[in-house]
Specification:
It is a single chain. This protein has 5 helices and 3 strands. It is mostly helical and 117 residues long. The protein has a single domain, classed as translation initiation factor eif-2b, domain 1 (Four Helix Bundle (Hemerythrin (Met), subunit A), Up-down Bundle), CATH 1.20.120. The chain has a 3-stranded antiparallel beta sheet. The longest helix has 18 residues.
């Protein structure tokens, strides 16, 4: 049976993706271990295509929740918005994923959204 090529996937504590800028000459895996590296991967087009970008963003939300010291979803959203402003990117649609949830529920919802894409 032929192995499937994954372009974006979750590993504990990291969003992993194939660097689209290096294809077709090399297949290089990028491991994003913080939210700013996920945002950079999207902004720099390391990940391409609407489904892959959406999946990467959803995994990024799960990663943000895993790494956060926030005690609830509202505090997590505040953290994300502050980090985004400092990093020069925007948080769009995070309120929909986080609306009133615990941090654990936010992680699960981010992962569920990514898997659904």
């Amino acid at each position: 049976m032929e192995e499937q090529l994954r372009t974006v996937w979750w590993e504990p504590g990291a969003v992993c993706l194939i660097d689209q800028l290096r294809l077709p000459h090399e297949q290089v895996t990028v491991r994003c271990t913080d939210v700013s590296s996920v945002a950079h991967a999207i902004k720099a087009m390391i990940v391409r295509g609407a489904p892959a970008i959406g999946c990467t963003a959803a995994y990024g939300m799960a990663l943000a929740a895993v790494l956060s010291t926030a005690t609830d979803a509202a505090a997590l959203l505040d953290e994300l918005e502050a980090d985004a402003a400092a990093g020069g990117y925007q948080v769009v649609g995070a309120g929909d994923v986080l609306s009133p949830r615990t941090i654990e529920e936010a992680v699960l919802e981010g992962l569920r959204t990514a898997y659904a894409i």
